[in-house]
């Protein structure tokens, strides 16, 4: 079965073709980062308009790269939410318009399910069940994953998401948007002993997170330096920030594995691309004989491949999940725990 995936929840337009027999055939992505950079963040109206400009050329590129015709597509999976309403509407209308024109069924996918299942696209995929740490620009959640659509929320952030903390702290240091990769690179030159920033909720028994205090701590030290902050100061602060956030993320993952008695940990979402986080998780897991799985770097942040793949995973278990119903609706807010497993997977 050949599934087309369409992603447009925020500032990336992603198209991909996943075949249940042959795997990922092709994918194409356009990131709007450069366009939003001068505003210091995503401008929703500009995002929607750019998705409109990019979607069809990316579709054509994906079909050409995969060497298939549009008529070969069996089903179309698109991100139905959560995300920016206008941006989601573009992807949904492209998917449903194409479905109507080609007489193919469509299926709305939860964006976070796409992130969550993206490590399964890797050459060495994890088996269910596992603990998943979803660390993206809008979410920070620990989940127990027993299969497609079988997600139990164990803990989440009470305020900022990890990616948001990276971006806001980077902004305070005068780094561009999105600041995650930039603050991470700068931290490599920092002195780990220079700043001990708070590690919020590190010792709390539960699996929730809180990162807004850490961002405030960054603001406080930046202010202490006022205008004469030098590059080394910035690097030291970046290092203090990265060490603090990585410590908390690693500790909570280890607690989740211990509490559930599971041995496999899966990381998903943009912050999963972070080199310091990966190094610290690998070290902590090796010590305890846990296995850690990551998406390929290119599939950590938003992309169409994870949406095509999530669609294919669902359709493999429940072929009727895609329908020839094209009156699309999007869900800008959509709690992941409202998802159900594919029907055929339910016990009889
Ligand atoms: P959501 O999926 O929750 O709706 P999103 O789609 O905006 O949010 P992603 O695309 O998964 O989030 O990830 C983007 C985030 O990942 C940004 O906050 C970015 O700064 C962060 N990020 C990307 N690469 C890195 C890195 N190397 N180190 C730290 N953070 C990173
Ligand atoms: Mg993005
Ligand atoms: Fe995302």
UniProtKB/TrEMBL annotation:
Question: Which species does this protein come from?
Answer: Herbaspirillum aquaticum
Annotated function: Required for the formation of a threonylcarbamoyl group on adenosine at position 37 (t(6)A37) in tRNAs that read codons beginning with adenine. Is involved in the transfer of the threonylcarbamoyl moiety of threonylcarbamoyl-AMP (TC-AMP) to the N6 group of A37, together with TsaE and TsaB. TsaD likely plays a direct catalytic role in this reaction.
Q: Which GO terms describe its biological process?
A: tRNA threonylcarbamoyladenosine modification
Sequence positions that bind Fe cation: 111, 115, 302
Where along this sequence does the record place binding of substrate?
134-138, 167, 180, 274
* Pfam families, per the entry: TsaD
Q: Which cofactor does it need?
A: Fe(2+)
Q: Where in the cell is it found?
A: Cytoplasm
Kindly indicate whether the keyword Iron belongs to this entry: yes
Q: What's the protein called, per UniProt?
A: tRNA N6-adenosine threonylcarbamoyltransferase
* Family statement drawn from the similarity comment of this UniProt entry: Belongs to the KAE1 / TsaD family.
Q: Which residues form the signal peptide?
A: none
Domain Gcp-like: where?
Answer: 24-309
């Amino acid at each position: 079965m050949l599934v087309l995936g369409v992603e447009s929840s925020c500032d990336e337009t992603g198209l991909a073709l996943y075949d249940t027999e042959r795997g990922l055939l092709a994918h194409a992505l356009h990131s709007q980062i450069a366009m939003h950079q001068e505003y210091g963040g995503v401008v929703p109206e500009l995002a929607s308009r750019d998705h409109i400009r990019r979607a069809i050329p990316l579709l054509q590129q994906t079909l050409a790269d995969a060497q298939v015709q549009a008529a070969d597509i069996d089903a179309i999976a698109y991100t139905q939410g959560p995300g920016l309403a206008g941006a989601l509407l573009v992807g949904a209308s492209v998917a449903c318009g194409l479905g109507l024109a080609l007489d193919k069924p469509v299926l709305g996918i939860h964006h976070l399910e796409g992130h969550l299942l993206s490590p399964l696209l890797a050459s060495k995929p994890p088996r269910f069940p596992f603990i998943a740490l979803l660390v993206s620009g809008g979410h920070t959640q620990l989940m127990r994953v027993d299969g497609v659509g079988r997600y139990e929320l164990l803990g989440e952030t009470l305020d900022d998401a990890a990616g948001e903390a990276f971006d806001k702290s980077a902004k305070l240091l005068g780094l561009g948007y999105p600041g995650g990769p930039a603050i991470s690179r700068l931290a490599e030159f920092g002195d780990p002993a220079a700043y001990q920033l708070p590690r919020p909720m590190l010792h709390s028994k539960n699996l929730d997170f809180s990162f807004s205090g850490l961002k405030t701590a960054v603001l406080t030290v930046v202010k202490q330096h006022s205008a004469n902050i030098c590059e080394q100061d910035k690097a030291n602060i970046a290092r203090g920030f990265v060490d603090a956030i990585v410590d908390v993320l690693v500790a909570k993952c280890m607690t989740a594995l211990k509490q559930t008695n599971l041995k496999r940990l899966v990381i998903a979402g943009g912050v999963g691309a972070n080199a310091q986080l990966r190094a610290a998780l690998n070290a902590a897991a090796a010590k305890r004989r846990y296995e850690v799985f990551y998406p390929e770097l290119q599939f950590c942040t938003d992309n169409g491949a994870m949406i095509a793949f999530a669609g294919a995973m669902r359709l493999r278990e429940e072929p009727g999940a895609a329908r020839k119903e094209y009156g699309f609706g999007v869900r800008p807010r959509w709690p992941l725990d409202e998802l159900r497993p594919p029907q055929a997977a339910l016990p009889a």
